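Justification of computing resources. Each target in the renewal requires a structure prediction run like the one illustrated here; the chain below, 189 residues long, is used simply to show the kind of job we budget for.
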Amino acid sequence: MDDGMPNTPDFTAMILLSYTLRPGVDTAEYDAWLREVDNPFFNGVPGIARYTNWKVTAAATPVPFTHFDFMGVDSVGAAADVWQRQDVKDFTAEWRRLWGMGPEATDLSVNAHVYLFENVAQAGMSPSNEVVVTTAIAPIQDASAAESWQLVKPLRGEPRFQYLRIQAGPAPTALPEGAIAATLLAGPD
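Resulting structure tokens:
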């Protein structure tokens, strides 16, 4: 399996998708679909620098999602072009049909919240099969600029946080407030 994160600054802007699968979904089947269908599709879309899928393994406090995806994009400006592509819209509609909480919902945030973030330092991420993502309303004071991501705008759903700290590696024994530990499910080869 790939390390999940770029070794170099492939992207400094990122679309974050957070979601929970519909009850009754076979998670092994979903994980295989991510590796065989979802991840290859998104990593082949022009403008997407790197796409990875993650599963929440622990959280300091309950979070309203069990999975998230990092969609690294070429730039903040390129994000709208990527997100509005017809093939991306068609693919996400099929994802909702197969796995979403409300496949027929007109409010698509029922299925996933989607936000555009930019790295504060204009740096890439460190490679890892595990990450700790800390969410916050205000800048995270002890986070290095390279680990700090700031919300540019929501693309779907009301923002739950304005800042992220993304740290590569396994979670500490005690997660800090607002932290989520996750493991990589799929990434490009």
